[in-house]
């Protein structure tokens, strides 16, 4: 290891998106390697609205590997973090920074320690796939720091060992996690089906129903489902393989009717598996069910589906609108049923606020003036549910991981490698 002193710090910062599964991963055939019982497909969400930023630093002065998540130090001792670090260290290559006079050889990486700081710009462990963006960003940024030569698919097989859904966050657009057949997991990895420009009409609105930490984690929930749900076995063997082919075709042809039907039925089946688990697991709540019913009623009143819904291991609704115009109509409906408790719309509709402008919503007076949606005209007066949604995030399909070269975006101090 060559450097002018032992005090140098070399670091890399990366940003990685979250993803939402439209054909769900639920159930492992190998708990340690994180090998799934079926393939899954996801849409990557625009990192300008939902993302993880991670800075990783290396220095001979660091005494041990350390990590800070959202500003608080967390233990890196967990098996999953250790699996990712071990796999990355195995693949590390020579690194040279001529400007700083730093040379790290392949062999040095096993002796050097890392500092990692990560920040999620959205709630952690609330069913918004923080583990997906987080673990993908950890693997991607360390891979870059250590000059790992593997491509994104090979990196995805490492991220998979941190959290299954993380492997799909190594790509933008539409992504498939191929379950693989090998016992060592070497063929269980993600591939890109189409990039984010392929179907850029789509608009995504997330209704954050609760940002509290959930009762049953995805990891333990799916373990219990594998142990007790016969529906899960049937789903993995008979249903998902066919749906994967149909979903690939729907994405290829930008066929919203088929995409929407598959997305909604697969989300519903995943939650049916949770209900079929013993003891049963409930991730959706009354508000989630209400949102499904609003969308179903609207879709039925139109000639073709306007919006797809999907829910992960939590009550938040991820709503995919076929285009901007539909997204504006969707937002009007959502605000009609779920008006904010305060007049502060700025923190109630976040992300791409231009959707609210398209919907004619410029202030709370516009929300109050919204007429009931035409599809419920016979049932007036309809009930409203003020306060049942915390806020809405307007976003779209987005790109994969990127490196941030601007040092002002780093989360660690370049002098001492400690959080800024
Ligand atoms: N930025 C991050 N970097 C590294 N690890 C992270 C990061 N963010 C979250 N995690 C890990 O993921 C865990 C949360 O995962 P969990 O599966 O419980 O929730 P979630 O991913 O938000 O929801 P879900 O996967 O059900 O959509 C955290 O406790 C932490 O261990
Ligand atoms: C419902 C899901 O979001 C489940 C995600 O599970 P995780 O990837 O969080 O689970 P582990 O592999 O145990 O870390 C569906 C999906 O993303 O496909």
TrEMBL record:
It holds the Pfam family MDD_C. Keywords: ATP-binding, Lipid biosynthesis, Lipid metabolism, Lyase, Nucleotide-binding, Peroxisome, Steroid biosynthesis, Steroid metabolism, Sterol biosynthesis, Sterol metabolism. One of its GO terms (cellular component) is cytosol. GO terms for molecular function: ATP binding; diphosphomevalonate decarboxylase activity. SUPFAM superfamilies: GHMP Kinase, C-terminal domain, Ribosomal protein S5 domain 2-like. It is found in: Peroxisome. It catalyses: (R)-5-diphosphomevalonate + ATP = isopentenyl diphosphate + ADP + phosphate + CO2. Signal peptide: none annotated. Belongs to the diphosphomevalonate decarboxylase family. This is Diphosphomevalonate decarboxylase. It comes from Arachis hypogaea.
């Amino acid at each position: 290891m060559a450097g002018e002193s032992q005090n140098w710090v070399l670091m890399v910062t990366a940003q990685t998106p979250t993803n939402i599964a439209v054909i769900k991963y639920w159930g492992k055939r190998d708990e340690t390697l994180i090998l799934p019982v079926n393939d899954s497909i996801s849409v990557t969400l625009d990192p300008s609205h939902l993302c993880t930023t991670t800075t990783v630093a290396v220095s001979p002065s660091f005494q041990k590997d350390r990590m800070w998540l959202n500003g608080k130090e967390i233990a890196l001792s967990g098996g999953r973090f250790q699996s990712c670090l071990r796999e990355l260290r195995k693949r590390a290559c020579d690194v040279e920074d001529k400007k700083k006079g730093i040379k790290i050889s392949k062999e040095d990486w096993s002796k050097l320690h890392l500092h990692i700081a990560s920040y999620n710009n959205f709630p952690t462990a609330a069913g918004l796939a923080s583990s997906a963006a987080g673990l993908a960003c950890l693997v991607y940024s360390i891979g870059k720091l250590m000059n790992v030569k593997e491509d994104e698919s090979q990196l995805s097989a490492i991220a998979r060992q941190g959290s299954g859904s993380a492997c799909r966050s190594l790509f933008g657009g539409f992504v498939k996690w191929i379950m693989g057949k090998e016992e060592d997991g070497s063929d269980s990895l993600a591939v890109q089906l189409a990039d984010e420009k392929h179907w850029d009409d789509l608009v995504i609105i997330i209704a954050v129903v609760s940002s509290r930490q959930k009762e049953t984690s995805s990891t333990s929930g799916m373990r219990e489902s594998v142990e007790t749900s016969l529906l899960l076995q049937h789903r993995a063997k008979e249903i998902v393989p066919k749906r994967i082919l149909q979903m690939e075709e729907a994405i290829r042809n930008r066929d919203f009717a088929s995409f929407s039907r598959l997305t909604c039925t697969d989300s519903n089946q995943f939650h049916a598996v949770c209900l079929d688990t013993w003891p049963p697991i409930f991730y959706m709540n009354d508000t989630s069910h209400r949102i499904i019913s609003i969308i179903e009623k609207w879709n039925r009143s139109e000639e073709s589906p306007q919006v797809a819904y999907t829910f992960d291991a939590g009550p938040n609704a991820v709503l995919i609108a076929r285009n901007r115009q539909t997204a504006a109509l969707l937002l009007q409906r959502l605000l009609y049923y779920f008006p904010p408790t305060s007049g502060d719309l700025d923190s109630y509709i976040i992300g791409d606020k231009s959707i609210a402008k398209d919907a004619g919503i410029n202030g709370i007076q516009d929300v109050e003036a919204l007429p009931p949606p035409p599809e419920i005209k016979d049932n007036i007066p309809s009930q409203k549910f003020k306060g049942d949604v915390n806020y809405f995030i307007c976003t779209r399909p987005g790109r994969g991981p990127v490196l941030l070269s601007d040092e002002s975006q780093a989360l660690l101090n370049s002098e001492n490698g400690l959080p800024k």
